[in-house]
Amino acid sequence: MVDQSIAGAASKMARAAEGDRSGRARLVILLLCLLLALSMFLSLTSGASDASAVGVIRDWLTGAVPADAALGARDRLIVYDIRMPRVLLGVLIGAALAVSGAVMQGLFRNPLADPGLIGVSAGSSLGAVAVIVLGTTWLAPLTLALGGLALPLAAFCGGLAVTLVLYRVATRQGQTSVATMLLAGIALAALAMALTGILIFMADDRQLRDLTFWQLGSLGGATWPKIASVGPIIVLALAAMPFMARGLNALALGEATAGHLGIPVQRLKYTAIVGVSAAVGASVAVSGGIGFVGIVVPHLLRLLIGPDNRYLLPASALLGASMLLIADAVARVIVAPAELPIGIVTAIAGAPFFLWILLRKRGVIDL
Amino acid sequence: MIEARDVSVAIGGKRIVANVDFTARPGEIAAIVGPNGSGKTTFLKALSGDLTFTGTVTVNGRDLSAMKPVEAAIARAVLPQATTLSFPFTVREVVRLGLVGGRSGVLPGENERLPERALARVDLDGFAGRFYQELSGGEQQRVQLARVLCQVWAPVLDGKPRYLYLDEPVSSLDIKHQLIIMNIARDFARRGGGVIAILHDLNLTAMYADRIFVMHRGRLAANGSPQEVLSDELIEKVFDCRLRVGVLPAANMPFVLPQSAA
After folding, report:
1. Does B65 contact A at CB distance below 8 Å?
2. Interchain pair B101, A250: CB under 8 A
3. Are strands B194-198 and B163-167 parallel, antiparallel or unpaired?
4. Complex ipTM value
5. I need a surface site. Which of A329, B89, B258, B260 has the fewest CB within 10 A?
6. How confident is the model over B112-131, as pLDDT tens digits?
7. How far A190 CA sits from the closest chain B CA (Å)?
8. Cβ distance A260 to B78 under 8 Å?
9. pLDDT at A55
10. Does B48 sit within 8 Å of A253, measured CB to CB?
11. Taking CA atoms, what residue in A is nearest to B77?
C-alpha cells in the first residue's frame, strides 16, 4: 500500500516513463536523508545520562556560555566525546555494511550474498583477533610499525582472503553457483571461527573480556582516534562504489553480456572485492560482527525502488546508517544504564527478516 | 567487415571449433547453420571475445584482441540464446542497460526515449512497466533484442558499419515474431550495418541470408549464397538426414513457408 502510494506520488512528480523507477528512487533517497538526520538527532539526544544535547547544541550554535558552568562541562563532555563519535561511527559502519551487502549481491548476482553470512566478516574477525591477542607477542613488529592501522588492516586482509577464495570456488566461467557460494562461505566461516577460537584460547583474561564484547558487536568503544583510523578507509571505499553502479547493473545480465555492453568486467570484480573487504574489514575492526544490516537494508530497498544500483547504493548507505543508529539507540536504552551489544539487536530484528525473505523466495531461488 | 581467419577454440583440451574462416560484410546477413553441437555458438563466442581462441579476428580492420570492452561494445552488440536475470528489473530497465557502455548513435537527448522505441520495434509496446522475470521465454528474448538494438541503434557510426551478433534470435518465437525479428535484421543490414545470425530454420535462412556458413563437427563444411549452399548432398552430409531441396509435399498435405508472408 505504502509502496504504491509512493510510486503514485513519484510518477506524478517526475512524469516518469512506464517502467522507469528513477523518479520514485530519487524521492525515496530524499526521504532517507531526512530519516538519517532524524536518527542522528535522536541518537545524539538519547542515552543513559540525562545530558542535554539540545542545550549543548544550542549553546554551540549561539556561542553562549552555559549558566551553570560545571554541569555544562559535563554535558559537553558526554555529547562531544561520547555520543558524537558514537553517532558518527554508527553512520560510517551502517553505511559501510549496507553498501557492502548491496555490492556483494550485485557481484555474486544473488540477493542472499552478505558479508556476514558468507564468512567475510568471520575472516575480518580472525584478522582483528590475531592483532588483539598476538599484538604484543608474535605480531609485535607489525603493530609497532602500523600503530592504530594494524587492526583495521589485519581485518581487511582477513576479509579479502575469504572473499577471494569464495569467488574462486563459487564462480566458474562467469556463472556463480549459489549453493557452492553459501556452502563454501559456511566452510570458510567455520575455519575462520576455529582459528579465532585457538587465538581466544591463547588470550589472557583482560583480552578475553574485550574479545567477547567485541565479537557480539558494539559501537560502545567509539572514540575520535578510532574514527580517525577507520573513517578514511570506509569513506574511500564508499566513495568508490558509485562508480561501480552501472557495471553492477550490467552484471545482472551475466558476466559475458556485461562485457558485451562495454563493461571491463575483471576490473569491476576486483574493485568490488577489494572495496567490500576494506569496508567490512574496517567496520569489524572497530565494532565487531554486526550482522544482517547488509542483507536486510538492500532487500527492503529493492522492494521499494527496484534493483538499479545507481539508486540502490546511495539509498542503502542512508538506510543502513539510520537503521544502525536506531538499533544502537535501542541497545543503549532498553537495559539502561547498562547496554546490550548492538549485534544482538540487529540479529534479533534481522534473522526473522532473513527467514521471511527465504519464505517469499521459496521456489524462486534455485539452490 | 568482420573477418575470422583460421579460428580454433579448445575447451578443456577438446577442440570444439577447428580452422574456421569467416567473413561478415556490412549490408549483409551472414547466417551460420549446422546441427546441434557443431560449434556454432562456440564460434560466435570466439567472435564476441568471450572465449580464448587461436587465429585472428578483425572488426573493421582492427584486431579484436587489441580492442577494449567499450570499443568492442561500440562496434557490435551480442544477443545470447537466453538471458536470466538475478534481480527484479522492469522491462524498461533491462532495455536501458543497452545504453550502459557503448554509443547508441542518436542525439544525447533522445537516448531516454530509445527504450520505448526499441520495444515498439520488437512488438512489445506497453510492456515497459512489466517485470522481466514474469514474461514468457519468447517475450524475454524480444526484450533482450530491444536491449541489443539500443546499443547499436544507428547501423553506421562515424562512417563505420556496426554489427549485430544474434545467437538463435527466433528459436522461441511464433511465426509472426520470427518474421518481425528477421525483418529488423534485414533492415539493419540494408541501412549499412552487418548481421551475423545463428539460425536453425533452413527456410527462414534461405529467405533472409545473403551468405550461409555451414558448420559440421567444428569445421566449416560450406559457405556461399543460399542457392550455392542448400543442396541435397550437403544437407544429407551435414544434418545426417535425407532431405531434398525444393520438393513439394503431396497435394493434400498442407505446408506453410515464411516466404509466403504478405
Report:
1. no
2. yes
3. parallel
4. 0.92
5. B260
6. 899 999 999 999 999 999 99
7. 28
8. yes
9. 67
10. no
11. A260
The amino acid at residue A234 is I
Backbone angles phi, psi at A137, to 5 degrees: -115, -95
DSSP state at residue A292: S
User: DSSP labels for B69-103?
Assistant: HHHHHHHEEEE-S----SS--BHHHHHHGGGSSS-
**If we measure between CA atoms, which residue out of A93, A96, A57 comes closest to residue A75?**
A57
Domain boundaries, chain B: 2-260
Q: What percent of chain A has pLDDT over 90?
A: 28
B50/chain A closest Cα distance in angstroms: 6
Domain topology for A92-361 = ABC transporter involved in vitamin B12 uptake, BtuC (1.10.3470)
Residue A35 pLDDT exceeds 80: yes
Tell me which CATH homologous superfamily contains domain B2-260: P-loop containing nucleotide triphosphate hydrolases (3.40.50.300)
Q: Quick check: helix, strand or coil at residue B222?
A: strand
SS3 of residue B62 by DSSP: strand
Q: Are B48 and A260 in contact (CB < 8 Å)?
A: yes
Task: State the pLDDT confidence band at A351, using cuts at 50, 70 and 90.
Answer: confident
Out of A109, A263, A264, closest to residue B86 by CB: A109
Contact state of A17 with B80 under an 8 Å Cβ cutoff? no
Question: Rounded to an integer, what distance in angstroms lies between the CA atom of residue A45 and that of residue A78?
Answer: 10
Report the C-alpha gap between A214 and A229 in whole angstroms: 17
**Whole-number pLDDT of residue A10:** 46
- What is residue A194's predicted lDDT score, i.e. its pLDDT? 93
pTM of structure: 0.87
B77 neighbourhood in chain A, CB within 8 Å? 260
Angstrom CA distances, B91 to A17, B95, B147, stand at 12, 6, 9
Q: Is residue A239 within 8 Å of residue A97, measured between CB atoms? A: no
Q: Where are the domains of chain A?
A: 92-361
Do A20 and B92 make contact, defined as CB atoms within 8 angstroms?
yes
What 8-state DSSP symbol labels residue A66?
Answer: P
Mutation target vs B (from A172, A249, A260, A301; most B CBs, 10 A cutoff)? A260
Instruction: Please identify among residues 137-166 of chain B the ones whose CB lies closer than 8 Å to any CB of chain A.
Output: 151
Q: Which grid coordinates are listed for B78?
A: 551480442
Quote the minimal CA–CA distance from A111 to chain B in Å.
Answer: 8
